[in-house]
Design brief:
GO terms for molecular function: ATP binding; ATP hydrolysis activity. It is a peripheral membrane protein. Its main location: membrane. Helix content is about 35%, strand content about 20%. It has 13 helices and twelve strands. It has a seven-stranded mixed sheet, with helices on both faces.
């Protein structure tokens, strides 16, 4: 059974709360091998009309965080602690009936794979119309007209005809557009996009990103954009939060994090990205090792087994002491601010070009 309590040690906000405020979120799964702490002490704010990009490797806790916000975790094997406020309403302690009224209405999600998220048994138009009927209480005819309107808004040609098609009759890019139409049909205040461009080719990716930005301007939605692609996040987000092994390790505006990153993990992500203007003979620099098992996460800084700069901290702090992430622009690393600046300027930035 899900345990849902408020953490006593949640960090206090610094300044006005966002439309979405998460405080000391902790999500633990019960498994046969033991408890898995998928999210460990996560805090952030998101304001209306803004986009927060969450980046990190697979297993870093990005998707779990956002599934928990919408109450989509398995209630039988999940313990959730902390605080999640959406426009001042606590979501962790909300009932399932309250969450059903919220999902698809004030908050919606675009899933990574629309082919599995869309039902193969119903037409695309019916699937878009259904949440509109449920949350707005309109007739089938009005809901169908709204579905056709939304398909047109997301750029589906001949929307009246295509609304009667089934998901398998749509291309990958069109299915993703249909998922966006379904998510936005009730004009949600919060939109969570879980790697919505991962399976798409580059030109379709750009079209989907432009579409999301245009629709955000029209509806004023707050967007949480989950991805492992820093190139996508550079074009989409206002702020960035970098996650590793269930924890946030760095956050700031998109310019701050991408132009002057402070955490060794962020340096590694940037180093591993290919560039068109780089020397073809220069190999990519992947992050050594692999992400840790969250059944037995390393003590102290969870990145220390893979960090090539831990020796510069001195002593055993990286192994024994968890680095804290301060509010606003910050990174959770034991390196001093001067060390971070020096390493980035002298060693990291020359590699990035």
């Amino acid at each position: 059974m899900t345990t849902m309590t408020k953490a006593e040690g949640a960090p206090a906000p610094t300044g006005p709360d966002g439309f979405l405020s998460v405080r000391d979120l902790q999500v633990t799964f019960s498994t046969e091998d033991g408890p898995v702490k998928a999210v460990d002490g996560l805090s952030f704010d998101l304001h209306r009309g803004k986009t927060l990009g969450i980046v990190g490797e697979s297993g870093s806790g990005k998707s779990v965080t956002n599934l928990t916000i919408l109450g989509l975790h398995d209630p039988l094997f999940t313990t959730v602690d902390g605080e999640i406020l959406l426009d001042g309403k606590e979501l962790i302690t909300a009932t399932e009936k309250e969450m059903e009224k919220l999902r698809g209405n004030r908050a919606a999600m675009i899933f990574q794979d629309p082919l599995t998220a869309l039902s193969p048994f119903y037409t695309v138009g019916r699937q878009i119309a259904e949440p509109y009927m449920k949350h707005r209480g309109v007739s089938k005819k009005a809901a169908w007209e709204r579905a056709v309107e939304m398909l047109a808004k997301v750029g589906i040609p001949n929307p009246k005809e295509r609304a009667r098609d089934y998901p398998h009759q749509f291309s990958g890019g069109m299915r993703q557009r249909a998922m966006i139409a379904m998510a936005l049909v009730c004009d949600p205040d919060l939109l969570i996009a879980d790697e919505p461009t991962t399976a798409l080719d580059v030109t379709v990716q750009a079209q989907i990103l432009d579409l999301l930005k245009d629709l955000q301007q029209e509806f004023g939605s707050a967007i949480v954009f989950i991805t492992h692609d820093l190139g996508v996040i550079a074009d989409m987000a206002d702020d960035i939060m970098v996650m590793y092994a269930g924890r946030a390790v760095e956050r700031g505006t998109v310019d701050e994090v991408l132009r002057s990153p402070q955490h060794p993990y962020t340096w590694g992500l940037l180093n591993s990205m290919p560039r068109l203007d780089s020397d073809l003979s220069t190999p990519l620099s992947p992050i050594p090792g692999a992400p840790p098992s969250l059944l037995t996460p390393p003590p102290g800084c969870r990145f220390h087994p893979r960090c090539t700069f831990r020796e510069r901290v001195g002593g055993t702090r990286c192994v024994t002491e968890r680095p804290l992430l301060a509010p606003d622009r910050a990174s959770a690393c034991h390196l001093t601010a001067e060390q971070k600046r020096t390493i980035f300027v002298e060693e990291i930035r020359p590699r990035l070009g």
